[in-house]
Each structure stands twice: as structure tokens, then as C-alpha cells.
Amino acid sequence: MTRLYEWPPTRSNRARWALEELGMAYESELVDMPAGEQNSPAYRAVHPLGVVPALATDGYTMFESVAITMQLIDEHPQCGLAPPVASAERAEYYQWSIFAAAELDTSLMLYFDNTMRPPEAMIPPGTPHNAASAEQGRHAFMNRAQVVSDVLATQPYMLGDQFSGADIAVGHSCFMATFMNLLEEFPQLVAYYKRLSARPAHQRTYAQPTG
Predict the structure, then answer these.
(1) 60: which residues sit within 8 A by CB, 6+ positions away?
(2) Closest C-alpha among 157, 159, 160, 161 to residue 196
């Protein structure tokens, strides 16, 4: 049985969204982050850093939201959420999926950590917000968001006319940016995220309450 360790609304939503798009049966294991469950020895055996998501199957356990998404999609090629291996389109698929995690998420989290994360949840606890770091994160996100916006100026999805796993990766970054009020400067991205939000799998994923 497939088990998703999650705590919405975090990057674990990417993995859940992929599971929902693929129509897979899975169990949800909520890791109560505010209560500190991520620090238990049992969960650290699943994810050594004590964050979400993690995925456990009969054959393997893995973590990293984009990696989980890509693995699940590769296991279900009949669903058509990724281009053929070694194709030019596959190169773009890899590029934008990793761009979401490495570029969009990194800048968003720098901004979030220095504007919205409670001081007691900082590392180490009590670390104050830093206005210069917040501006650095905001500026970095704006530059990277413009790159994505330019792509979406001529096509509805990251790879063209067809929704793919790259949209799950980038789409969650858009969700994070919406939560932080950083997306509204990019009409192309606002319209893009509206298209993604209309998908039933997205609605099932992001309607999940915390706890």
C-alpha cells in the first residue's frame, strides 16, 4: 500500500496532487508539525530531516516533493503526465520541475521565513525576521516568476497545450506565492493558477484541512 506522510498545506501537497491526478489508492499519514511529531524517532527513520513529504510503498521509501511527483508519474505512463523519455519535451519537463523546487521554492521560503514564519518555528527558535533577507527573497522570486510568466504568455501550460507533472511542481509554487501575496504582479501566473485550480485533482488536494 502507498502511504503519504504529509502536513497540508505544505510541499506535501505536490505529492498528494500527483496521487490524485493519477487516481491512485493511498493512505494519508498526517505528521503534526506544530506538535513536533516530525522529530519522533519513528518519523526520522522515514525522513532524516523531519520534514514532509515522504512516500512509502511496498518497494521503496523516498522524500522530496518533486522527486515523488516525478517517480509516481513515471510509474503510470498511461496517464500521459510526462513526455517520452529522452525526448526534447522531456528535457523541458525536467527543467521546469526542478526549477520549481530549486528556484521558485527557495526564494519563496527565504521571503516566508523572514516575514510570516513564527519566531518560535525558526531555526534556531527565536531567530528574528530579517528585512534584508525578506527583500532578497522577494526580489529573487520576482525575477524567477517573470521567467515562468514569459513562458506562459504563449501557452496554457509549462510544456505547451497539455497539463503535465511540471505543472504540479510549478503550480504548487504558485499556490505558495498566492498565500504570500506575491503572485498578483503577474497576470499570466494568476490566470495559469486559476486554470490549475479548476482541476478536480487540485481541488481535492487543496481542500484537505490541516489535522
Answers:
(1) none
(2) 157
Kindly give the interhelix angle for 65-75 and 165-179, rounded to the nearest 10 degrees: 150
Q: Give the global pTM.
A: 0.96
For 96-123, letters b (16+ CB in 10 Å) and e give bbebbbebbbebbbbbbbbbeeeeeeee
C-alpha cell at 123: 531555526
Q: What residue spans of the chain are helical by DSSP H? A: 12-22, 41-44, 65-75, 88-99, 105-113, 131-152, 165-179, 187-197, 200-206
The tens place of each residue's pLDDT in the chain, 211 residues long, gives: 999 999 999 999 999 999 999 999 999 999 999 999 999 999 999 999 999 999 999 999 999 999 999 999 999 999 999 999 999 999 999 999 999 999 999 999 999 999 998 877 777 888 899 999 999 999 999 999 999 999 999 999 999 999 999 999 999 999 999 999 999 999 999 999 999 999 999 999 999 665 4
Residues sharing a CB contact under 8 Å with residue 155, sequence separation 6 or more, in sequence order = 161
